[in-house]
Task: inverse folding
């Protein structure tokens, strides 16, 4: 038993070291790493320059840099930027800090539930070991503060539940989580289900809890929509919800990235076992299952699995402590988890470690693409491009900061590509850089709706293909080839 525990602890320590290496290298890298980091950065920076966060003119005037999340992450990042200056460092510092704080919250919950520091170490380490956490929780993205606030809410509710109270003290934390990202309400839904299913409390107590929790959220939603003259609604609803973007094949493809991980499956199964065989852990089981269902119901992207990953991390720790009363079962659990974690570190995490810890150098081919663009496009001319990170690295003006979000807006009838078509007809853009050739664009494929219809036709009439460039290294979510179009009269 001692040998198995030492082996598992060693593997967890290696997971912490891998996370630290990925986070540290990402923090030091001054260019975009994850697609859409640039969009979140530009939304914050244009706000700092005096443009309201959800100003309606973000849909009508360049640069088109939409802030399509609730405000807390932008606020935190803007505060850090007063020290670090503009760039990716501030947002990544916020993300890494809150991702590590979430590990601390997971450890706090597990230790309090078991009375064992060992459980706290397991919970925090397992949380940081997930591929999705290392990938997304170190990037200039909004999710990390949200899952931290949710974790504290879960811990607060668990403490109250054990003491026989309703846990209203968790509500401010759940509201704060929603104020980071408008879909971060998994913990609140799980609490409402737990209260409703409890025979000693029931639906009426759940309704009271729901009113106290959803009341502030709905009030803030209404206030921000009114204050922004509808801009908040356009950005956070019409810019994120799309039947075209979230088709079944997209959801299945996204979910496969997570459920295709043996480590994710092993920890989820262990978490369910903890909730089933030790009924006093059933609320965390409800949280785990609620998180999985809501992740799939939405778009199943990496950060949607943060809540169930958090639940699984805590439940694995609790399971291993509770199984100490059953030595054979505990040995089997430790051996199985160690074997899967060993494979996870040696196989599944290797591409991410290579991308983040080894490829983030001044000589990587993604920066070669930026140098190629810088050589082809004169300074000062606005550029349309799907790869915003490339524009930022090339120090060329960004026109559309988040083409995918503007494509969703087009699909929802909230934005018209004619806004771009006028400039294309006039040859106002020094270049248009696409991730696929013009001939392959159509008015139905949702990722390119931002340049569909009149914009696509104007591009075909007024611009010509000048050059292409293929990024040699593999980057997650990044299409490799760039197609550079310039005005036909350009040399």
Result:
């Amino acid at each position: 038993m001692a040998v198995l525990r030492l082996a598992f602890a060693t593997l967890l320590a290696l997971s912490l070291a891998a996370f630290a290496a990925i986070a540290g290298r990402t923090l030091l890298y001054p260019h975009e790493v994850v697609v859409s980091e640039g969009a979140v950065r530009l939304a914050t920076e244009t706000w700092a320059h005096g443009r309201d966060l959800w100003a309606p003119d973000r849909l009508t005037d360049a640069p088109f840099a939409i802030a399509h999340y609730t405000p807390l992450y932008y606020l935190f990042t803007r505060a850090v930027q007063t020290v670090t200056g503009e760039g990716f460092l501030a947002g990544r510092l916020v993300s890494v800090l809150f991702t590590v704080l979430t590990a601390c919250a997971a450890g706090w919950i597990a230790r309090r539930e078991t009375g064992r520091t060992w459980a706290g170490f397991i919970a925090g380490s397992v949380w940081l070991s997930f591929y999705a956490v290392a990938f997304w929780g170190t990037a200039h993205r909004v999710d990390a503060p949200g899952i931290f606030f949710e974790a504290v809410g879960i811990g607060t509710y668990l403490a109250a539940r054990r003491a026989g109270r309703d846990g209203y003290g968790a509500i401010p934390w759940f509201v704060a989580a929603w104020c980071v990202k408008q879909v971060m309400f998994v913990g609140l839904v799980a609490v409402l289900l737990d209260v409703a299913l409890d025979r000693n409390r029931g639906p009426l107590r759940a309704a009271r809890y729901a009113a106290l929790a959803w009341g502030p959220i709905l009030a803030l939603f209404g206030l921000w929509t009114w204050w922004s003259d509808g801009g908040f609604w356009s950005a956070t609803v019409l810019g994120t919800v799309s039947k075209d973007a979230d088709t079944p094949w997209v959801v299945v493809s996204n979910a496969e990235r997570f459920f295709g991980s043996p480590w994710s499956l092993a920890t989820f199964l262990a978490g369910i076992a903890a909730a089933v065989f030790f009924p006093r852990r059933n609320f965390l089981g409800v949280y785990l299952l609620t998180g999985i269902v809501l992740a799939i119901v939405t778009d199943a992207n990496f950060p949607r699995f943060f809540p169930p990953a958090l639940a699984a991390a805590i439940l694995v720790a609790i399971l291993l402590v509770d199984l100490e009363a059953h030595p054979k079962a505990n040995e089997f659990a430790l051996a199985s988890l160690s074997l899967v974690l060993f494979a996870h570190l040696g196989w599944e995490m290797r591409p991410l470690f290579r991308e983040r810890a080894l490829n983030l150098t001044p000589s990587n081919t993604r920066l070669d693409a930026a140098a190629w663009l810088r050589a082809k496009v004169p300074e000062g001319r606005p550029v349309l491009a799907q790869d915003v990170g490339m524009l930022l690295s090339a120090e060329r003006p960004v026109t559309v900061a988040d083409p995918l979000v503007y494509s969703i807006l087009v699909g929802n009838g909230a934005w018209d590509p004619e806004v771009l078509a006028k400039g294309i007809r006039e040859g106002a853009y020094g270049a248009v850089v696409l991730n696929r050739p013009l001939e392959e664009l159509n008015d139905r494929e949702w990722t390119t709706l931002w340049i569909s219809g009149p914009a696509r036709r104007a591009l075909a009439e007024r611009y010509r293909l000048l050059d292409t460039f293929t990024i040699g290294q593999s980057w997650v979510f990044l299409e490799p080839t760039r197609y550079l179009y310039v005005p036909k009269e350009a040399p």
Q: What stands out?
A: The longest strand covers residues 463-470. The beta strands are 383-385, 431-434, 463-470, 481-487.
